[in-house]
Structure formats: C-alpha cells, structure tokens
Design brief:
The structure holds two protein chains of two kinds. By secondary structure, chain A is mainly alpha-helical. In chain A, about 70% of the residues lie in helices and about 5% in strands. Chain A has a four-stranded mixed β-sheet with strand order 2-1-3-4. In chain A, helix 3 (about 65-75) links the parallel strand 1 (about 55-60) and strand 2 (about 75-80). In chain A, helix 1 (about 5-20) crosses helix 10. The chains are: A mainly alpha, B alpha/beta. The structure holds adenosine-5'-triphosphate and magnesium ion (MG).
C-alpha cells in the first residue's frame, strides 16, 4: 500500500484541526486543566468537610466536670449547649449528634456503679455516623484507661481483662496499595479521555465535512477512499492517545503537587512495568474507540446528529469502566471478550501487581480483533455513497 | 474526451420511491470543445457530472473519461479531471494557497513542480492579493477563483464544471466563463452544466438538453435550430421539453 496519500491527508487534517479552538479545547484544555481541576476540587471539598469540626450537642453532664472537660480537651467537636429540641436538630442536620452524659457519671465511675452514655444519631447520614464514631472512640479510650488504672491499683496484670490483642498488618507492597486506588480511577480516566479526545476531531472530519461541503471536493481527488479514511482515522487516533496521555500526566502531576491528606497516606509508587502494560492495551482500545467515533461521524448527516449519537456512546463506554471499578468484579475469561470492560479489568489487575501473561494476551488479542472490525466498518462506510450522500 | 454510454443512476428515496436521476444517457465531448449540459432544477445535471467524476457510481451503463472507464478505473479518471460544482466547498480554516497546495499534493505532485505551478495560476487568476487569507474570509468571487485554481492545479485534460457561475456577480461570472473558454482553446475537454441559456449560447460548441434525467436533444446551436425551427435557445429549450411532455 502506498502510504504517501495517507501522510498527506494526515498532515493536512492536523493543520486544519489545530486552527480550530474547539479542538484545542477538547484535546488540551479539558484534559490538562479542567479534568485535574475537577478531581482536585472534589478532593479538596471532601477534605475540607472531613476536617470541619462537627457540631455535637452536650446533654446533661452538669455533675460530671471531669468527663466534660476531657471531651472539651479533645477539640474534635464544636460542643453546643443543650436544648430540648435536639432530635429535631439532628434530623434536620443542624447538629451531627448529641451526647448525653448522666449528671452522676463521674461519681458512678468512681464508685464502680454501672452507668450509660447515650449518643443520639441520624443513622446512615455519613457525617452523623462519623461524629458518633469519634464519640464512641473517645469514650472507649477513656474506659480502657479507667480499667487500666483500676487493675494497677489492685496490682493485677492487664491480661486479666485483655488476654490478647488483635492487630492488623498490611503485607501488600506500597505499589499494590496505590495500585488498588489508581487501578480504580486510571482505566476510567483513560477510557473517558480517549473518547473525549477522539470525539471532536472525528466529528469535524466526517459529518463536519459533509456539512461544510468539503467532502465532495475531497472525494473528487484521485486518492483512494481507503487512504482518505485511514488518514482521518489516524488523526483521530493520535488525538485520542494524546488526550489520554496529557490527562494522565497532568492528573499525576497535580496529585504529586497537591497531595491532599487523603492521598498523602498513599505512597505514590506505581510499578512502571504495570503502567507499560496498561499503555500497550490502551492502543487497541484507542484504535477501537477512534474507529467507532469515525464510523458514527461518517454515518451522521451533520455534526449535531453525530453529537447526538456519540453522547450515549460515551455513557455506554463509561458503564463498563465503572463496573470494573466495583470491588469484587475481577478478571475472568468470560469478561475478557467484552470490549472496554476487559481493558478496565486488566488494568485493575496489572496495577495491583498481579500479572498473568495469559490475561494480557487475551485482552490484547480480543481488543485487536474489535479494533480491526471497527476500522473495517469505517472504511466500508466511507465507500457507501448512500451514507456519504444521505438526504 | 468523454463518452457516456447508457449511463443511468437510480436513487431510492423513502417517500418519493425510485428516482431516475440520470436515465440511459449517451453523449460525447470532444477535446478542445465545450460541451454544455442545459437543464432545469432537478433535471439530473449534478448527478450526471458526479457520475463522470466517479463521486457516485452508475446503476447501469458506463462512461469513459480520458480513455479510462469510470467503473473499472475510477482513480485514474479522477486523476485526469478537474471537478468543480456548487457542492465542492473549500476548507475554511486553510488559506487559498494551502487548499490549492493540498489538492496538488493529493494529485501526487512534488513540491518542486507544484509551487511554481501555483504561483503561475495565482498570477493568471489575479489571486495574489488573498493568497494567504483563510478561505472562510474570502468573498464568493475569491472563493470561486480559488476553486478554479484547485481544479486546474494538476493541469487535467478534462474539466467538469457544475453551474460554475451560480451566485456570482456579472463581472466574476465573466471571468469564470472566460477561463472556461480558455480551457477549451488549450485543447481540454470541457463539460459544464447550467440553466442559464445565454451562457450556453455564448460559450458552447455542443449542447445537450437534459430533462427528467434524459437527454432530449443534442447538437450544436445550428443543428438545434434546424431541428426545432426556432431561433433563440430559450425557445429551442421550451420546444424540446414540450415535445417530450
Ligand atoms: N443523493 C440523492 N438521493 C436521492 N435523490 C437524489 C440524490 N441526489 C439527487 N437526487 C434527485 O435526483 C434528481 C436529479 O437531481 P440533480 O441534483 O442531479 O439535479 P440538477 O439538475 O443538478 O438540479 P439543480 O439545478 O437543482 O442543481 C432530483 O430529483 C434529486 O432530488
Ligand atoms: Mg445541481
């Protein structure tokens, strides 16, 4: 095959596209600036709300200054004075929870009488649950201290009430820990960005050309239609991969620079080999998605129509990516043949440090077949005059 | 040289059913002569010229253009023609120069040949003033000149023009028609379609009246006058169309 015409078309389409601010927007500004800004913004907001002192109402406790003082010293809550309509305040989320300390609490503890702390919550409301958890943790800690001092007084060993302890210990490497989180976000981000990067150029070079009447000019040139569509398809593929790569690097950099407390706990270490594996599988996926967008663009009569078709497609591609992010959905050979989903699952597996060459091969193979079919569909459609001259 | 033999194109329309856009058409255009395809709206002019330019494929019949068959060797046909129609727009974001250069390259021309050729064409068509202006900022006349430069860049032996003066003012239309005449004088085969009688009267060596996809009459002006017994082309046209109504 003579590739010179393909190269001529490729160069011209790039020149043409880059003069359109909308391409620049969809290819560079969105992935590099907007996507990380959204991600960081969300993290920031999550972080701020987590840090915010939750309002907790203190009920009673008048006769128990020690317990109240300890609670105040904790500085975790914004303690508000008692008011009789606390149930209402909790259910309208004006306060997160209320804690009732009996007025004889200190005395009861000192005398060894049984007494009860009550915590009022809005079950299922995350912030209320969080405040309740912190309160429980505080009182649990306090109880343990009292137990310890009582044992000490009586010269008894601590093992009398705590015969053994239970401790958790992480054996996954830091890379795997990061891998789990990144493995959930990365395939999703890559798939969305591949599509976002492909969509605008694909529409502009197909339905857009029909709309502007340049398609017929192009078809009157001696270049074979296969070469024309390949040149265009390669431009879409480049745009798609470039957008994915740009978005990957800008999001990565953003996370490194602004480690939010949530991510600071995670060591930012990724296995380079796993990343390389992700990139390899990404190529047939990008070819597949690019050809699908070109095919849809060719079929549509106008850019608007093409957009109408491609928006549901974006959703359709996001669903498998989200499915793969669900805990417990793991790679198996049945799912390995479902496009997009297979790639997401494989990424998840690779990034968490398990690499089965068989899986890589099957996903790469099946994605290559899908990509080839999609390219063939685009080429076939470009030869159908009923499609090019749809009225 | 263009030779159409039984050229037919059917369209299937959802509501209108089968449309015989071009119906069993035969004609010959000789090199150095200008062939006019005269017809009203919807007569099948554009479809006929698109078939010759291999943008559409015929339902049946065929044609040879510059010795190549439109069905068997469409790429060779396209390499031999310059095609300009009301539907062949320019890339708005490219400059006049870049558009002509792109099509020169698509025709396989090396830059060493292409660039002097573009300079000569831009000189001849007085286009240097807007050479580096984006096509979406050109006036209709400038666009048409750019389109003509685009069709001529590879110096094709066959020119196919579909209503080349549509929407142009008198002066620009005159320039365009002058250019078409010159193509004929330089020995090219020229076919052009129009519904403007005066253009055909002034320019064409040979006339075909197309109506409902069929060629109803063909010949030079003298032959058509002799056949119908009327003088002006308008009267001839109406007479021919009514004969077949
Ligand atoms: N792609 C198409 N699909 C269906 N019908 C078509 C198509 N292209 C043209 N036609 C129909 O074929 C007939 C001939 O159309 P054509 O455009 O060739 O006429 P024309 O002589 O160029 O008319 P005009 O002067 O309006 O440009 C018309 O009835 C038109 O509606
Ligand atoms: Mg027409």
């Amino acid at each position: 095959m003579n590739l010179r015409p393909v190269a001529i078309v490729y160069r011209k389409e790039w020149r043409d596209l880059l003069r359109d601010w909308r391409t620049v927007m969809s290819m560079i500004v969105v992935p590099v600036v907007i996507a990380p800004m959204i991600i960081l913004g969300v993290l920031k907001i999550v972080n701020l709300t987590m840090k915010q002192e939750s309002k907790v109402m203190l009920l009673g406790g008048d006769g128990s200054p020690q317990a109240v003082a300890a609670l105040r010293r904790l500085n975790k809550f914004d303690l508000v004075p008692a008011s009789p309509d606390y149930t209402n305040l909790i259910s309208t989320k004006q306060i997160r929870a209320a804690v009732e300390i009996p007025s004889d609490f200190d005395a009861a503890v000192a005398q060894g009488r049984k007494t009860t702390i009550r915590i009022y919550t809005y079950d299922g409301e995350p912030k209320s649950m969080q405040a309740a958890g912190q309160l429980e943790e505080f009182f649990e800690h306090r109880r343990q201290e009292i137990v310890r001092s009582r044992l000490l007084e009586r010269l008894l060993p601590e093992t009398l009430v705590t015969p053994f302890e239970v401790k958790r210990s992480n054996v996954a490497s830091p890379k795997q820990v990061t891998g789990v989180v990144v493995g959930m976000i990365l395939p999703y981000l890559m798939i969305v960005m591949c599509l976002v990067g492909a969509t605008y150029p694909a529409i502009d070079m197909t339905a857009g050309e029909k709309e502007r009447g340049t398609l017929e000019t192009l078809l009157s040139s001696p270049v074979a239609r296969t070469h024309l569509v390949l040149g265009k398809g390669l431009v879409v593929l480049t745009a798609s991969l470039a957008t994915a790569a740009l978005s990957f690097s800008s999001n990565g950099l953003a996370l490194v620079f602004f480690r939010t407390s949530r991510f600071a706990k995670l060591p930012l270490a990724l296995d380079p080999l796993a990343l390389a594996g992700v990139c390899v599988v990404l190529i047939p996926l990008a070819i597949f998605l690019s050809s699908v967008t070109v095919t849809v663009g060719l079929f549509a009569r106008s850019s608007r129509e093409a957009n109408t078709y491609l928006q549901p497609l974006l959703l359709l591609a996001i669903i498998p990516a989200l499915l793969a992010a669900l805990p417990g959905v793991d790679f198996n050979y049945g799912l390995a043949f479902i496009p997009v989903l297979n790639m997401s699952l494989l990424c998840k597996e690779l990034l968490t440090g398990t690499c089965h060459w068989g899986h890589v091969l099957v996903v790469f193979g099946s994605m290559t077949v899908y990509a080839a079919l999609a390219v063939a569909a685009a080429v076939a459609l470009f030869k159908r005059e009923s499609v090019l001259f749809r009225t | 040289m263009i030779e159409a033999r039984g050229l037919t194109k059917l369209f299937h329309h959802k509501k209108r059913g089968q449309i015989r856009a071009v119906d069993n058409v035969d004609f010959r255009c000789e090199p150095g002569r200008i062939f006019g395809l005269l017809g009203v709206n919807g007569a099948g002019k554009t479809t006929c010229l698109r078939l010759l330019a291999t943008i559409l494929g015929p339902t049946s019949g065929t044609a040879s253009v510059n010795g190549f068959d439109i069905v068997a060797a469409p790429e060779k046909v396209r390499a031999s023609i310059g095609f300009l129609s009301t539907a062949t727009a320019l890339y708005g974001r490219l400059t006049a120069f870049e558009v002509v250069e792109y099509f020169g390259r698509l025709h396989g021309m090396a830059d060493s040949v292409l660039h002097p050729r573009i300079d000569a064409l831009f000189q001849a068509l007085a286009m240097n003033e807007f050479r580096d202006r984006r096509c979406d900022r050109l006036s209709t006349g400038m666009k048409q000149k750019t389109s003509i430069a685009r069709t001529l860049v590879h110096d094709p032996p066959v020119m196919i023009f579909d209503e080349p003066t549509l929407g142009l003012d008198v002066l620009t239309a005159r320039t365009v028609l002058g250019f078409i005449r010159e193509c004929g004088q330089r020995g090219k085969t020229v076919i052009f379609s129009t519904h403007v009688m005066s253009e055909v009267e002034k320019l064409c060596d040979s006339i075909a009246i197309i109506h409902g996809g069929r060629i109803l009459a063909e010949g030079d002006l003298a032959q058509l006058r002799a056949r119908t017994g009327v003088e002006s082309l308008e009267d001839i046209f109406i007479r021919v169309v009514e004969e077949h109504a």
